[in-house]
Amino acid sequence: MFKNQYDSDITTWSPNGRLFQVEYAMESVKQGSASVGVKSNEHVVLVALKRSPKEELASYQEKIFLIDDHCGMSATGLISDGRVLARMMRSQCMEHTYLYDAPHPMQRLITDVADKY
Question: How far is Cα 10 from Cα 22, in angstroms, rounded to an integer?
Fold first, then answer.
């Protein structure tokens, strides 16, 4: 994809009626790999698809992140965005555990992520 004068902002429409930032995001999703989570009453399983090392610069990128002792996450699409979210969630959990000596409530952690991004 080529950059042009209409792709600097998500609210800038091209003369053809296109939003290039949305198209770039959709292309990023297409190039990402799948990730699946399954939950039962006692366990949670996260599975992420490994891409072939021939297609990427590095041989493999971690897609499943441990956030705290009681939670984890899986990222698809741009893994660098997932690493930023994981780092932010880890710091939120560490700060809460340090202040209150208890694990961070999941609903509040999800709300914090949704409010920030």
Answer: 7
Are the CB atoms for 89 and 73 separated by under 8 Å?
yes
Pair 31, 78: CB distance under 8 Å: no
Long-range contacts of 26-34 (CB under 8 A, 24+ apart): 27/1, 28/77, 28/78, 29/76, 29/77, 31/77, 32/76, 32/77, 32/78, 33/63, 33/76, 34/76
Number of helices and strands in the chain (H, E): 3, 4
Q: What is the pTM of this model?
A: 0.71
pLDDT at residue 56 greater than cutoff 60: no
Q: Pull the structure tokens for residue 50.
A: 């490994």
How far apart CA 88 and CA 113 sit, in angstroms, is: 8
Length of the chain: 117
